Backbone:
């Protein structure tokens, strides 16, 4: 299926000289997207560090790669070269890319993909600052399913999603293969394999065996705490390690795209909580409780949107939550240029009525919009952002206006 990131890659190479870094979780579609996009050129090249022959070529150095690609021959259009998983080149990948780009960057357009954040191994070497732009590839979202085209605006006109597609997105998650297959047996096997890769390859490569076993316990605990603030001390007691170790392990799990956290917004909020973040999973289908899963799906859509807007240069966007010591809470706050833009409260049903906390925090933050999205309401052709006061809106309508 077509991904919106194919348009992002085409836009990048049309406008920029820098390398394109495309990062995201395992099996989110980086390789497929990069291969599809490399065909924008009549001269696409693909080098995968996990391929033995490709690895040996890269280890020979930049000149050997250039000779292999015959960059000494002038071509009708600039070739596109994809380096896949090159960050596994331990300490040397930054030096290699810097040298290759500085020498051959005018002869070839370079894309670099990675299944972990490219700084997870804390690799040394010269800085690549100014030589690349970073783009974060997320799981499928409602908007990308119904309309995978680019827009010059952050907020889009609403567009309906088929009921069966929304059901598949909720129950099988946003990773392309299980979403497309939408079969329980396939999903069960896919989920098991992806979990094995996380613990047997990704984590085992950067942690001790005993740590990996304990981190498995931590991931199970985090699954049950989606949408809740992280209590490091409680987790430390259950896993039998220090709270500082829990913090370090959660940062590792974030770097490997198992989970992400959002921080509380404290500016102009009386008696706001100051430290503990809330945790969510990149694969919301792992969350058993349906209410928490729908909140996680919403968090993932919002995170994808702000990453997408930031990566394309639309501005400086952030994602937070609101909670004070009186336990008044709103699930999400999106900021634009460090100013509150809109509030979002995610609900399974509209039956509970509009949350009073939306009124309270809209007054506190002066955010122009405040939404309570409900997953049991049918899609409507109304622009949610036309409303200034707090309103209840269909989740499918609101989320279709994002990315």
Residues:
């Amino acid at each position: 299926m077509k991904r919106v990131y194919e348009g992002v890659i085409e836009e990048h190479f049309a406008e920029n000289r820098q390398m394109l870094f495309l990062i995201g979780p395992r099996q989110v579609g980086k390789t497929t997207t990069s291969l599809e996009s490399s065909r924008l050129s009549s001269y696409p090249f693909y080098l995968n560090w996990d391929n033995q022959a490709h690895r040996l070529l890269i280890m020979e150095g930049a000149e050997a790669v250039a000779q292999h690609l015959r960059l000494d021959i002038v071509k009708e259009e600039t070739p596109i070269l994809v380096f896949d998983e090159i960050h596994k080149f331990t300490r040397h990948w930054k030096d290699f890319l810097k040298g290759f780009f500085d020498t051959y960057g005018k002869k070839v357009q370079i894309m670099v993909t990675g299944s972990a954040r490219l700084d997870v191994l804390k690799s040394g070497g010269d800085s690549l600052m100014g030589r690349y732009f970073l783009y974060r590839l997320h799981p499928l979202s409602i908007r990308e399913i119904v309309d995978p085209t680019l827009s010059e605006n952050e907020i889009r006109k609403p567009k309906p999603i088929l009921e069966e597609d929304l059901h598949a997105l909720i129950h099988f998650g946003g990773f392309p293969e299980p979403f497309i297959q939408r079969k329980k047996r396939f999903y069960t096997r896919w989920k098991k394999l992806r979990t094995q890769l996380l613990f047997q390859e990704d984590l085992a490569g950067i942690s001790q065996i005993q740590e990996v076993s304990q981190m498995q316990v931590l991931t199970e605990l985090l699954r049950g705490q989606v949408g809740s603030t992280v209590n490091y001390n409680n987790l430390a007691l259950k896993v039998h390690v220090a709270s500082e170790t829990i913090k370090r392990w959660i940062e590792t799990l974030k770097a490997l795209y198992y989970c992400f956290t959002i921080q509380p917004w404290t500016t102009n909020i009386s008696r706001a909580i100051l430290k503990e973040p809330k945790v969510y999973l990149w694969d919301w289908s792992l969350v058993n409780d349906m209410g928490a899963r729908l909140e996680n799906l919403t968090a993932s859509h919002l995170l994808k949107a702000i990453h997408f807007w930031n990566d394309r240069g639309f501005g400086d966007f952030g994602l937070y939550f609101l909670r004070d010591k009186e336990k008044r809470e709103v699930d999400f706050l999106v900021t634009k240029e460090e100013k509150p833009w809109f509030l979002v409260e995610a609900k399974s049903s509209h039956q509970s009525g509009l949350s009073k906390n939306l009124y309270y925090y809209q007054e506190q933050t002066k955010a122009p919009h405040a939404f309570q999205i409900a997953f049991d309401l049918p899609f409507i052709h109304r622009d949610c952002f036309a409303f200034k006061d707090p309103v209840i809106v269909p989740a499918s309508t609101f989320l279709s206006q994002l990315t």
User: Anything to note?
Assistant: The first helix runs from residue 4 to 15. Residues 17 and 109 are 8 Å apart (CA to CA).
